Amino acid sequence: MEIAIIAHDGKKADMVQFLMEHKELLKAKGINLISTGTTGSKVEAAGLNVHRFLSGPLGGDAQIAARVAEGKTGMVIFFRDPLEKHPHEPDIFMLMRLCDVYNVPLATNPATAGLLIKSA
């Protein structure tokens, strides 16, 4: 299964921590991670394998949305920072909308992501 991971700047550390806590489970289930560029670089620095796309504001969110629409990505974990404004909000909403259109599980916080990862 392919899982997309994305985190706003204020949530990147939370994403790395979440993935490290679930590292063995991801490995045991053979999960392939894809990510937007900056999030992916933080995840790689922590020692995990991830295929990186462009940074979110440069089109990475849209690249992942396309993979959702193509049926390649089976789950999206997007740790959003609800207290900050983001210049690429239209791309974020497009990704979230496509998850709904294609019935792809979407987690926007660690509690929900934990439940989804365990059921993957």
Automatic annotation (TrEMBL):
Gene Ontology BP, a term: methylglyoxal biosynthetic process
Catalytic residue list: 61 (proton donor/acceptor)
Family annotation (PROSITE patterns): METHYLGLYOXAL_SYNTH, MGS
Record EC number: 4.2.3.3
Sequence ranges assigned to domain MGS-like in this UniProt record: 1-120
NCBIfam families in UniProt: MGSA (TIGR00160), PRK05234.1 (NF003559)
Summary of the function given for this chain in its UniProt record: Catalyzes the formation of methylglyoxal from dihydroxyacetone phosphate.
Stated name of the protein: Methylglyoxal synthase
Source organism per UniProt: Wenyingzhuangia marina
